[in-house]
Design goal:
With 187 residues, the protein is mainly alpha-helical. The chain is built from 4 helices and 4 strands; from the N terminus they run αββαααββ. Strand 3 and strand 4 form a beta hairpin. It holds the Pfam family SRF-TF.
């Protein structure tokens, strides 16, 4: 029977060029519906409410609808304001309307410049810290090199005391060479 009713709704929609909507709930709670292709269920319900004078929506739904409309309007206004801040559609504005836009842009420009200055100062500070660290590392490396050079010279000029005399010892210098394979041995 449910399918028969939906079939008749389709036929009425086509034969009579009418806008038809049918919603059926079975005893088990299963919903079936049909709506003419030229319309939607909310549009039909809205037309029903207008023509019958009956309120289908309670106050809560109406307040939500009003809130949605308010938010849409606010969004539209923000879109217009954003276009104005981008420099678009300014010809339609009066000089008094341009002053707040100019002030907002000045504040934005000041904020951007302050942020740039902050980043530049931080960069300069980091650069100075890196230079100081580089100087310290160079100083430490230089002293280590001097200590190593002094130790090698002491070995090269090594003297030891014998019976009050200073006798030169045979100088020995050790130099470490990387291991090189003997490429000639395999021939």
């Amino acid at each position: 029977r449910r399918n028969g009713i939906i079939k008749k709704a389709r036929e009425i929609s086509i034969l009579c060029d009418a806008q038809v909507s049918v919603v059926i709930f079975s005893g088990s709670g299963k919903m079936s519906e049909y709506c003419s292709p030229s319309t939607t269920l909310p549009k039909i319900l809205e037309r029903y409410q207008q023509n019958s004078g009956e309120k289908l929506w309670d106050a809560k739904h109406e307040s939500l609808s009003a809130e949605i409309d308010r938010i849409k309007k606010e969004n539209d206004n923000m879109q217009i304001e954003l276009r104005h801040l981008k420099g678009e559609d300014l010809n339609s504005l009066y000089p008094k309307e341009l002053i707040p836009i100019e002030e907002a842009l000045q504040i934005g420009l000041t904020s951007v410049r302050d942020k740039q200055m902050e980043i530049w100062k931080m960069h300069t500070k980091n650069e100075k810290l890196l230079e100081e660290e580089n100087k310290q590392l160079t100083y430490m490396l230089h002293h280590q090199q001097l200590a190593m050079d002094g130790g090698v010279r002491a070995l090269e000029l090594g003297y030891h005391q014998k019976d009050g005399d200073f006798a030169p010892q045979m100088t020995m210098a050790f130099r470490v060479q990387p291991i090189r394979p003997n490429l000639q041995a395999n021939k």
